[in-house]
């Protein structure tokens, strides 16, 4: 290549072309293949989704494109061409320019892009200064950038440090930074994985809108299939560093032709599936490790359709293009892919539960924190009860009080005076220290983040043995026997006991956390977002495990999640929280199918869905109001799309029973809600 | 786009090196650490075996040869009563290398315990103890030393207690802030949900996770402790004659510099400086390795 002069050539047909790309990481002195002869193209202006379990090489693709591989990574072969320019032939200066001018990257964790010790404004203007724009001009550009990512009051945001912004705001700032130099290629690596449903929807909307304005091409990496299906024109499925299927998003997701894609899609609770209708399918086994020697089809070990040929011969990428578009599948049996037998039998034996006395009864629970001298009502007047073997789903945006409520129950924070918590008919002391050992072991929790929940200095054996000692009072032989059972119940093996948490994958760590919670035969287990950091295949296995344990032990769950599909799958009853108040509570199916509270309606329509036929989406504008200063009247009135008038701003509606066991906190009468919501479904707004 | 993602999800069967092994390998690659280590080990060897390779008895006087300048017989010259300075410098490492590490150890143990208590209990315990510690930190070491000598008399034990207690609040502050961060992690809540005692939670659950900052702070404090011991000896509050201790030697000879007898002081001063620098290099290396 003759060294390219800084003149911009006419746009190449493809924004990004990867041809036969092979990348390896050097580990223990040996190069281990991560990407194997990967070829894919992204057209100008196109949004391309890359999906697959974690570890399949998605992030490596992203890092390779911008030549940001970690030190031990190397490109063994192939061509990367960005807008017609061979990235591998660029010298350091040209590469720097390409990174500054044409490609930008947004990571899962906005913390990675933002410097915690520098004000937002400074970080933004710095980018423009590098491009030669300084002083007031740079500030103006920064303000314009923040406006563009729909941040209100940019001058005040620019004065703040990253930690003073919410996760969603941080991610928006990170996107603003990525867009600052008007890139022609935008790489998004799991940009919404850490955000909750409504914030996720907002960020995705933002990305979709920006796409129209920018005409940038997008490489969108995610393990969330639903998000990809909403965002992308085409999708590629990556497995062990190889492309196994590719095609237009809706075609691939509705008519997959590779068993791996079929299996991934089956892991998701879809179309309102519930735990008593069958278990989720899972994908047995694991992704081949990096550098694994792969003879035939990489998926053969986990594929129920595999035959001898599959194990010895690498399947080519079959061209299955039809009138719906160009598509590829790397499977000998692509025509039978959808006949893939289930890996997990779907049978469940859950007898309908006899109605018994509630195991937990909460009445008038309040929690007020002091925030800069102002009272902050984190939980307000919550009453509910829970029966043995029942799951209560708690949903609501972050900041709605879900976690605080769980901590009140557990006694980790004491509630305000007045409310009561009764466990099996006996009142619980507000503080954990004052509860009896039996009461403490009866209520346990599985935390969201196992890295925080498992002591990183202790071995798995130590962690579980200690739980058995304290919660089940076991020691010696009895403890070991029970440890064996427990380990088997969560499908771990002995070999996992000797290691420290960091040596296990996220899914395995979460199993340890579940085992710990079940050590003392609890009556109630709180699950706080237990699968939000996991791959769909791992999530399915964990959800099945929770359902199995529940039917075996008759334990009750309080299940917190922002993934409404997951909540629906597991829950018998749902409580929807907003600013610490229950806005709606009732049997799961009634809450989901409606008529429901306007807030529930908005939440449900914010969920990215795989099989979304363009129904009217209800957007929740703006952030959740501050709990120190909730809006007067109905607390939802500032964002309510169905607000009926001044009464909403003047009077707080009561939580009124609409149907037996189903209560809604809204001034709109139930029959009227039913009429309004039915209208939306039939006539597109 | 300056941050690059280098961490990656751990696969099921990829066993990564343990964190301790990582630290070890990164220490072995740190030139700072290795240079510091060589200096420190040299002085430790002198302290342990100095009298076997010192050419003279460091305490034996030889009035006829008093104040001899450096020569092939007396490499570093002799002092006012003819003792061999070279031998004295070699063996003079012993007391300081006993007293300073013990003082640091005391400071670390007391500081860690206080840091765990204040960080774990927060609230009133923290407020009260922290204010007392702050007040304590405001008093100069010398005044503490004077008071202690009045109360306990001069001895190595006094020096150890004085320095140990003066440094404890500083270590406590470091430990406290590490504990405050740990306390927010869910494993602490999980321990409470097992009704563990506060003692167990602090020492079995939290302590192992705050060892790295304690290690760094301890090596840094050791450097200061060496300096403090030398200073106290110099002022006559610490190690007592006839020990060939460096600070003590400087103190009894520094009046002589005016007469041109620089060698009676210079080599002791260089010894102190090299040991402090060596320890600081080790501290830098440890800090670097743990924050990699
Ligand atoms: N710096 C590295 N050194 C060694 N192995 C790595 C490194 N980075 C990633 N890996 C491994 O390479 C594989 C692919 O990783 P990655 O590209 O991060 O996948 P994904 O983004 O799909 O989760 C995984 O097995 C991962 O553990
Ligand atoms: S080629 Fe064979 S093993 Fe591979 S996915 Fe297709 S059927 Fe399964
Ligand atoms: S009371 Fe008014 S503002 Fe509140 S949810 Fe009902 S309609 Fe909306
Ligand atoms: Mg990744």
UniProtKB/TrEMBL annotation, chain B:
Read off the InterPro entries from this record: BP-dependent_transpt_permease, MetI-like, MetI-like_sf, OppC_N
Q: Which keywords annotate this record?
A: Cell membrane, Membrane, Transmembrane, Transmembrane helix, Transport
Q: Which SUPFAM superfamilies match?
A: MetI-like (SSF161098)
Indicate where this protein resides in the cell: Cell membrane
Where primarily located?
membrane
Q: Where are the transmembrane segments?
A: 33-50, 96-120, 132-151, 157-175, 222-240, 260-283
Show where the ABC transmembrane type-1 domain sits. Answer: 93-283
Membrane topology per record: Multi-pass membrane protein
Q: Which PROSITE patterns match?
A: ABC_TM1 (PS50928)
Which family, according to UniProt?
Belongs to the binding-protein-dependent transport system permease family.
Q: What name has this protein been given in UniProt?
A: ABC transporter permease
């Amino acid at each position: 290549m003759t060294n390219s002069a800084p003149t911009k050539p006419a746009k190449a047909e493809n924004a990004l072309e990867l041809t036969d790309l092979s990348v390896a990481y050097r580990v223990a002195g040996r190069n281990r293949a991560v990407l194997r002869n990967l070829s894919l193209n992204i057209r100008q202006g196109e949004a391309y989704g890359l999906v697959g379990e974690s570890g399949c090489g998605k992030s490596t693709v992203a890092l390779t494109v911008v030549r940001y591989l970690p030190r031990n990574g190397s490109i063994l072969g192939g061509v990367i061409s960005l807008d017609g320019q061979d990235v591998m032939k660029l010298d350091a200066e040209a590469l720097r320019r390409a990174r500054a001018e044409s490609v930008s990257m947004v990571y899962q964790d906005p913390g990675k892009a933002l410097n915690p010790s520098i004000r937002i404004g400074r970080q933004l203007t710095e980018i423009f200064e590098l491009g030669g724009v300084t002083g007031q001009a740079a500030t103006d550009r920064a303000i314009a950038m923040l406006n563009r990512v729909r941040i209100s009051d940019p001058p005040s945001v620019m004065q703040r440090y990253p930690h003073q912004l919410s996760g969603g705001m941080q991610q928006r700032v990170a996107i603003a930074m990525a867009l600052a130099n008007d890139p022609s290629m935008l790489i998004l690596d799991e940009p919404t994985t850490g955000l909750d449903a409504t914030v996720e929807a907002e960020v995705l909307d933002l990305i979709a809108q920006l796409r129209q304005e920018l005409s940038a091409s997008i490489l969108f990496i995610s393990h969330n299939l639903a998000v990809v299906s909403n965002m992308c024109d085409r999708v590629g499925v990556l497995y062990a560093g190889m492309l196994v299927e590719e095609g237009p998003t809706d075609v691939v997701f509705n008519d997959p032709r590779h068993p791996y894609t079929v299996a991934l899609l089956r892991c998701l609770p879809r179309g309102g599936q519930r735990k008593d209708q069958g278990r989720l399918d899972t994908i047995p086994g694991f992704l081949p490790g990096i550098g694994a020697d792969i003879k035939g089809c990489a998926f053969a070990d986990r594929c129920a359709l595999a035959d001898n040929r599959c194990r010895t011969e690498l399947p080519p990428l079959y061209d299955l293009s039809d009138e719906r578009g160009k598509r590829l599948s790397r499977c000998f049996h692509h025509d039978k892919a959808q006949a893939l037998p289930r890996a997990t039998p779907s049978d469940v034996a859950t007898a309908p539960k006899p109605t018994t006395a509630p195991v937990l009864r909460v009445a008038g629970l309040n929690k007020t924190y002091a925030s800069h001298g102002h009272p902050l009502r984190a939980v307000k007047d919550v009453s509910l009860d829970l029966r043995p073997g029942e799951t209560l789903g708690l949903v609501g945006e972050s900041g709605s009080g879900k976690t605080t409520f769980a901590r009140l129950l557990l006694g980790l924070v004491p509630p305000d005076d007045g409310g009561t918590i009764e466990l099996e008919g006996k009142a619980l002391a507000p503080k954990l220290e004052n509860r009896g050992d039996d009461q403490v072991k009866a209520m346990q929790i599985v935390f969201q983040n196992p890295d925080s929940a498992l002591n990183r200095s202790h071995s798995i054996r130590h962690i579980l043995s200690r739980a058995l000692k304290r919660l089940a009072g076991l020691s010696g032989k009895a403890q070991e026997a029970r440890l064996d059972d427990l380990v088997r119940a969560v499908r771990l093996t002995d070999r996992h006991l000797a290691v420290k948490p960091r040596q296990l994958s996220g899914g395995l760590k979460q199993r340890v956390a579940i085992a710990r919670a079940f050590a003392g035969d609890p009556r109630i287990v709180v699950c706080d977002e237990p699968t939000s950091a996991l791959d769909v295949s791992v999530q399915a296995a964990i959800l099945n495990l929770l359902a199995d344990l529940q039917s075996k032990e008759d334990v009750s769950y309080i299940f917190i999640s922002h993934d409404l599909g997951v909540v629906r799958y597991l829950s018998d009853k749902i409580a929807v929280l907003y600013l610490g108040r229950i806005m709606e509570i009732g049997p799961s199916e009634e809450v989901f199918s409606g008529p429901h509270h306007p807030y529930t309606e908005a939440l449900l329509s914010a969920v990215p869905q795989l099989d979304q036929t363009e129904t009217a989406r209800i957007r929740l504008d703006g952030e959740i109001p501050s709990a120190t200063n909730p809006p007067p009247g109905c607390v939802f009135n500032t964002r309510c799309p169905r607000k009926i008038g001044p009464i909403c701003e003047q009077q707080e509606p009561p939580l009124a029973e609409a149907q037996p066991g189903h209560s809604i906190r809204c001034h709109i009468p139930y029959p009227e809600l039913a009429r309004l919501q039915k209208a939306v479904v039939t006539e597109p707004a | 786009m300056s941050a690059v993602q280098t961490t990656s999800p751990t696969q099921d069967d990829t066993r990564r090196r343990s964190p301790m092994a990582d630290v070890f390998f990164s220490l072995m690659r740190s030139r700072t650490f290795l240079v510091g280590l060589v200096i420190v080990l040299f002085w430790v060897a002198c302290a342990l075996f100095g009298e076997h390779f010192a050419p003279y008895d460091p305490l034996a006087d030889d009035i006829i040869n008093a104040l001899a300048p450096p020569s092939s017989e007396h490499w570093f010259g002799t002092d006012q009563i003819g003792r061999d300075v070279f031998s004295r410098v070699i063996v003079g490492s012993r007391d300081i290398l006993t007293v300073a590490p013990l003082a640091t150890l005391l400071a670390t143990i007391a500081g860690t315990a206080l840091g765990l208590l204040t960080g774990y209990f927060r609230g009133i315990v923290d407020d009260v103890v922290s204010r007392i510690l702050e007040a304590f930190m405001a008093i100069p070491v010398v005044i503490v030393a004077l008071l202690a000598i009045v109360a306990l008399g001069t001895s190595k034990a006094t020096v150890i207690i004085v320095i140990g207690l003066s440094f404890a609040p500083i270590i406590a502050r470091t430990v406290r802030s590490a504990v405050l961060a740990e306390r927010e992690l869910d494993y602490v809540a999980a321990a409470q949900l097992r009704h563990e005692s506060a003692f167990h939670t602090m020492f079995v659950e939290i302590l192992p996770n705050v060892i790295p900052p304690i290690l760094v702070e301890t090596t840094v404090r050791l450097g200061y402790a060496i300096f403090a011991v030398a200073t106290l000896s110099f002022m006559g509050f610490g190690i007592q004659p006839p020990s060939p201790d460096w600070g003590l030697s400087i103190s009894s000879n520094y009046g002589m510099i005016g007469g041109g007898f620089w060698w009676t002081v210079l080599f002791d001063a260089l010894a102190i400086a090299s040991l402090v620098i060596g320890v600081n290099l080790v501290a830098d290396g440890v800090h670097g390795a743990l924050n990699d």
